[in-house]
Each structure stands twice: as structure tokens, then as C-alpha cells.
Prior knowledge:
186 residues, alpha/beta
Amino acid sequence: MAxxxxxxxxxxxxxxxxxxxxxxxxxxxxxxxxxxxxxxDPLRVLVTDASDDVGRxxxxxxxxxxxxxxxxxxxxxxxxxxxxxxxxxxxxxSAARDAVADLKKAWGGIDVLLIFGQPMSAGEICSGxxxxxxxxxxxxxxxxxxxxxxxxxxxxTVRLTADxxxxxxxxxxxxxxxxINGKVFD
Length: 186
């Protein structure tokens, strides 16, 4: 009996009787299995230099996640184009230091500071921030002794692609990643 049953089912399968269209399965959270999604509160992020591919990828990824992003760029034309493409706020490189004060007025402060190779003073870094991320070829964590404020991490761009750095920046911006502090990612 078992042999006939299996043969009959095989014939039905080959003739297409058993073939059903593939139904996508959805998890309890509504996303497809194998995907991870995070809820991110709209953060106010300042990127100090989006002149290269890494900076542009970071600005784009953060905007896609719903963050409010302001950035400085050495090339005014490229900066305006990125600003229009992503809906972020652009500052010429000469006005990058003034951006902190301007964003405090416009947005009520900054939550995350992404430093791309420009050293900033501890006073600028510690002013109400929750996260500081230093991005560069050979990053060094800034000395924030006595600051008692933000979590500070560094990302090396030597072996990572621009997209990997952007994803890592987004991960470090999450509130759930607040425990990650004083780490250098390379």
C-alpha cells in the first residue's frame, strides 16, 4: 500500500496537481524570516565630513533609517547634490564648526556626532550628545576624561567597504547599542 501511495503522489506531483504557488511566510513581527529590523527613534546626527564615498554612504543610510542628518562637505556642489538627494542639511566645510551651534538652535541639539578625521574639542563633543563615532583610516578614540557623557567608538575604514561602515554607524546609533563604548572596529 505504501508503494502505491508514494507512486500516486509522485505522479500527481509530476503532473502539477500537487504544485502550489509558493506562499511567503511571515514572522509574528510581520517581516520575512531571515530579516532583522530595528525601530530607531529619529536621531539628530551631525557628520563632520561627507566628502568621500564613506561619508556619503553614512549620510544616505542614516537618512533611510529616518534620522535627521546634517553634514559638512569640502565640495559645495557635491554637498548640495547629496543634500537634495537625501533631504539632509548641508554645511560647507568652512562652516562645520558653526554647525553645532546652529543645530542646537534648529533641532534643539545633536544626539550623535560622527567625526570624520577632524579633531574636535572635548567641549564640542560633550555638549549633550549620547554617541560619538570617530571614522577614519586609523581611528583613535578622543580623550574625553572627565566628560562623563557620550559613548565613544571608532571605526577603521581600511578594510571595510563604505556600505559596511554605514551599517556599522547605524548600529552604533541605536539605543540598544548604548552598551558598546570605547571600542575600535576595524
